[in-house]
DNA sequence: AGCGTGCACTAAACCGGTTTGCTAAATCGG
DNA sequence: CCGATTTAGCAAACCGGTTTAGTGCACGCT
């Protein structure tokens, strides 16, 4: 025998068995009108009997389309999935993709390089998630030549994009806490390879930070850099980051977490450290993931339409793919505060102690 | 112009620009040893300058491999992602796939047909999740000829598979509740197109049901069919199923939920209905997803190594793919009860009322 | 009979790479 | 200095489909 390989049935085998040309077999499946009815049926019959299934790869090559879209994430899949935000987004992506019969390919850095992974991926377009504008690989991704929709990504004006008013959301979070009397804050940022010193001001993190700062500044509160710590956007990451800050002696009465996952981690850490929430510590998240209503205590957070973001991203991408539109549409969705039980008035003791330092009323 | 198409740089363009053959260009990337060093460098240089990136589809076709694995789920992506169990599993899958440089393709029913989706997918193998043995399409999937590892799927002895001792886990859950004095139970099953009358006894649902029954039977308790209700394995599904049962007049003191997602839903519904957990109702989940420790109250549940299941499934699959092994290995992982705060002794009032019926001590 | 039309089907080109044999020149051993 | 081996590079086949551009034939019309 020539070589093992797969003894898969090829289109030529069917053609031979049916005594027709390859073309006819192809037509029997994809263009039956060009064949006599009984011929088409006979061919399909024989194909079926032989167990013929067209090779999807060969099909892609000749048709020039893959029928799949790629979800681009700057973090490895293992961390991406430990963030419920991503799950929710994928719900939306899945919904829209299913609808139009497109497959979903997950693309994360391959051996540390997103560009390499992008090059390997056989898709018709990408939905890029959280690719900061200063991410060094954003340009390489763009060079793939395939259509891209940027979600939460600080894309250029020529790119299609979907995002939310992160800044307004963060502002609402800060105002909420300030309104409860808090003056000692800790911000927990998510850190996908992001130098906190100079976050891209257009990026999600930069925008949220700006919102927080604006809200605090309105009450005359500064936010020094040592009150901002960061870690991966996971429960473990949030828990660890809070513990670290606490260990270093920081004693905030309120935590502004940039994601619900991080906020969940804070709740866990606080519980372990014997800190009562919201009695001694208030926590506000961001995202309003399903679980936010179920944790203990239920999390006050900034709601954003995560699922819809996923859906719209895919719909936008598909319209670009199918209509070959140039696609530079921008969609901007809204956020709002959802007040639950993880926030409360600033604790008495702390108010007195800190009050002496900062307030003179 | 002939036709728009993509004006992508092809290997032939590079060859022409460099004044060499296509073969040499290919070698410059994939087999540089067969070229003089400076030639290889020069070619790569020109390719780079031209922005050449090999078409992954063409590459797949000629190499006969895709560098990707498919995750097969019997439900649409949108519901799959609303189940935290799946997220955790994907963490493991992502970890192992990243490690070996494989991509991950999500495959869910296309226009209702899993077989169709499988046919369209260009992957080197599948990890099938929760495909019940009596699922009509399991056979069609197998006919793809590609290697498959079945997770939680009641596969045949010739298939590679990974699962956990669902029955023992369920037994432990039932024993725990019986030990607390409960006698009025409600079982909430997950329902991916599963007729509860005759669940595949080898399937996950069948096994867990058997475990529950065994544990109850040991205490002389029957589990009539009307005490088993089912719904999708999501928070919403669990919430709705419990509400329905409650609305129909069922008044269990203990709920056995077949997944944590369902259990979360029960907690929500109970809270809405003013039922105190664990004071008036005990709830046991299954999976021990990360969130289980965070909900209110923290969920008593059966722990299973979900992440590891994902990892091992991929490793097993890759070994079959790469070594062309016949792969009929079975791995059986273990479960154990994690006791948290959602379970407690049977409530007094109920104990008296029901005690009259069933107990004579 | 002569011509146009439509039908049923096919040969060959094509998609964009990789791989196999082969040739010509350079290098080596003795 | 000559035959043997190695090196560098190429043409063509191949992967498995789809699509283009015909071909041959039967039929209808005048």
Task: Walk me through the structure.
- The first copy, chain A, is α/β, with parallel strands linked by helices.
- Chain A has 14 helices and 12 strands.
- In chain A, the strands form 3 sheets. Chain A has a 6-stranded parallel sheet. In chain A, strands 7-6-8-9 form a 4-stranded parallel sheet, with helices on both faces. A two-stranded antiparallel sheet of chain A has the order 10-12.
- In chain A, helix 8 (138-142) links the parallel strand 3 and strand 4 (148-151).
- The longest helix of chain A is centred in the last third of the chain and has 18 residues, at 306-323.
- Chains A and B meet through helix 4, helix 5, helix 6, strand 2 and helix 7 of A and helix 4, helix 5, helix 6, strand 2 and helix 7 of B.
- The structure holds a DNA duplex (30 and 30 nucleotides).
